Amino acid sequence: MSARVLSSLKSPDLAGIGDNTVAILPLGATEQHGPHLPLGTDFLIAGAVVAHALRKIPETVDAIALPALPLGASMEHQGFAGTVSLSYKVLHDLLVEIGGSLADSGIRRLLFLNAHGGNVGTLLNVTMELRARRGILAVATNAGRFGEPEGLIAPEARALDIHGGFLETSLMLAIRPELVDMDKAEDFSSRQSMHLEEDRYLRAYGPVGYGWLAGDLNPKGAMGHAGAATKEAGRAILDHQAGELARLIGEIAAMDITGFAPLGADKTP
Question: Is residue 268 part of a domain?
Answer without folding.
Answer: no
